[in-house]
Automatic annotation (TrEMBL):
The HTH tetR-type domain, residue ranges: 14-74
Source species of the chain: Companilactobacillus suantsaicola
Keyword DNA-binding carried by entry: yes
Residue ranges of DNA binding: 37-56
Keyword entries, A-Z: DNA-binding
Molecular-function GO terms, alphabetical: DNA binding
InterPro entries reported in the protein's UniProt record: Homeodomain-like_sf, HTH-type_Tx_Regulator, HTH_TetR
Protein name: TetR family transcriptional regulator
């Protein structure tokens, strides 16, 4: 991202970034990502184009900021020493609750942006990476035999696959059932 969101922000900067993020989400709920222009985002946010480019390189950079803000809201980037399966399931529950809370908005976005679209792929990739890094950085390396990268990739991919199956596949699944599915998949459902 062009502008480091981890730095302390003034209220004015936060307000401007929130306005652009809201403009992006509202636009995504109405039309496909590839039809959204920077000019339209600026008009919707009520800021000049130059202000947009003070904070973002392009609409993809704004999209990264939007995903960052969501990830920040669900606390999946907060370090958790010696992460274990219960911690992974807790993070999964936070993501599930967020998706459930914004179900209508996400559904409108998906209705306008097909599952195989650039936007949905970008979203999936971003969250897979965030979850991967969170898990990898916090694994208790003494408790596992497999390489940390492999374990983190397996866990993050499994979390995303369960969420995709539920929310993109439009399966009506309770949080409790979703947690059971994830637990089973992380435990290895196939017995040899």
């Amino acid at each position: 991202m062009k502008y480091d969101p981890n730095k302390k922000q003034s209220r004015g900067i936060e307000r401007t970034q929130r306005a652009f993020a809201a403009a992006m989400f509202n636009s995504l709920a109405e039309k496909p990502f590839d039809k959204i222009t920077v000019n339209a985002l600026c008009k919707r946010a009520d800021y000049p184009r130059a202000t947009f480019y003070n904070y973002f390189d392009d609409k993809f950079d704004l999209l990264d900021f939007c995903w960052y803000k969501i990830a920040q809201d669900i606390n999946i980037e907060i370090p958790n020493p010696n992460i274990d399966k219960s911690t992974i399931i807790q993070n999964f529950a936070q993501i599930y609750k967020l998706f459930d809370q914004y179900h209508i908005l996400f559904q409108n976005i998906i209705d306008n942006n097909p599952i195989d679209s650039q936007l949905v792929n970008h979203f999936i990739h971003y969250f897979t990476e965030v979850i991967y890094e969170s898990i990898k950085c916090n694994l208790n390396l003494k408790a596992i035999k497999a390489p940390a990268e492999l374990v983190a990739q397996h866990c993050s991919t499994t979390i995303i696959e369960v969420l995709k199956w539920i929310f993109l596949g439009k399966h009506d699944v309770s949080l409790e059932d979703a947690e059971e599915y994830l637990n089973e998949l992380l435990s290895g459902p196939v017995q040899v």
